[in-house]
Design goal:
CATH class of the largest domain: Alpha Beta
CATH architecture of the largest domain: 2-Layer Sandwich
Largest sheet: 5 strands, antiparallel
Strand order of the largest sheet: 2-1-5-4-3
Number of strands: 15
Radius of gyration: 21 Å
CATH superfamily of the largest domain: PAS domain
Strand content: 25-35%
Mean pLDDT: 78
Low-confidence stretches: 1-8, 121-160
Shape: globular
Helix content: 25-40%
Number of domains: 2
């Protein structure tokens, strides 16, 4: 092992804060000792685990984590975002999450360096849920204030806005395309192909980048090379190994990979 790599790993392991490294596939690559202790996992239990497993099943938990993950994959650095996390034993707690994208020599985002800074007074917000009168948590005054403050900050957070239009340049001319007109999007190297009815428009952008710009409630990644306008989905047909075929209203047939099934289920309100 190179000396610089050994020093980095030593600093990573001994850091006083919980530190994780997450890949662009959404799985945890590394976790230091503090992260393992705070989240209640052994190293072999946290490595390769989907990072969303570390968040509470709530809007400020998994909901916010999914939004931040898309931003990270698009190369956006994230500073002290309040999220609701989940230990291996089911205990929930609030933390500030900061994420710095790590890039390879070509400038592509390949992983994150994620810092989890627990709220000083958050411990016990959910741990004491079975104690106290009428099942209410016996929180200290400071803990209650911290919880109320987090709730207020969440309520007053400015909602992220997504573009209604995209600029398409072709042969020296620039046209305006309404996002709602897009049926589906296909990967093509450093370009994406926007399918609108019988036409297709090239946009110099990567799939990860365009995915981060579009409203995740309206556009869904169904495969590494395809994003679909949810309103265009007409039918789903089961294939093998948990995959599905997605049929659009115009007859277009796309593959739905297993890794994207859960998100589609959330959007349409039922199985596949």
């Amino acid at each position: 092992m190179r000396e610089s790599t050994r020093i980095y790993r030593d600093l990573f392991d001994e850091a006083p804060k919980a530190v994780l490294s997450v890949g662009t596939d959404g799985r945890i690559r590394m976790a230091n000792r503090r992260a393992q202790e705070r989240l209640g996992y052994q190293l072999d239990g946290i490595a390769r685990r989907p990072v969303l497993d570390l968040y509470a099943d709530s809007p400020p938990g998994k909901g916010r984590a999914q939004e931040l993950f898309l931003q990270f994959r698009a190369g956006v650095e994230i500073h002290t975002e309040a999220v609701e996390m989940l230990r291996a034993d089911g205990i929930q707690f609030w933390a500030n999450l900061s994420v710095r994208p790590i890039r390879d020599t070509r400038g592509q985002v390949v992983a994150s360096c994620s810092l989890v800074d627990e709220f000083p007074e958050s411990k016990g917000l959910k741990e004491s849920s079975q104690s106290g009168l009428n099942g209410q948590s016996e929180l200290s005054g400071n803990s209650k204030d911290a919880y109320r403050l987090v709730t207020l900050l969440k309520d007053f957070k400015i909602e992220q806005r997504y573009p209604d239009r995209l600029l398409i340049t072709s042969r020296g001319r620039t046209s305006i395309l309404r996002v709602e007109e897009i049926d589906w999007i296909e990967a093509g190297g450093n370009y994406v192909e926007l399918h609108v009815g019988q036409k297709a428009h090239l946009l110099r952008e990567t799939m990860n980048s365009i995915e981060a710009r579009l409203d995740p409630r309206k556009f869904l990644r169904v495969h590494r090379s395809a994003i679909v306008n949810v309103e265009r989905i007409k039918e789903l047909q089961a294939r093998y190994c948990g995959d599905y075929e997605v049929f659009l209203g115009d007859g277009t047939q796309l593959r739905l990979s297993r890794g994207y099934r859960e998100k589609l289920q959330e959007l349409i309100g039922g199985p596949p």
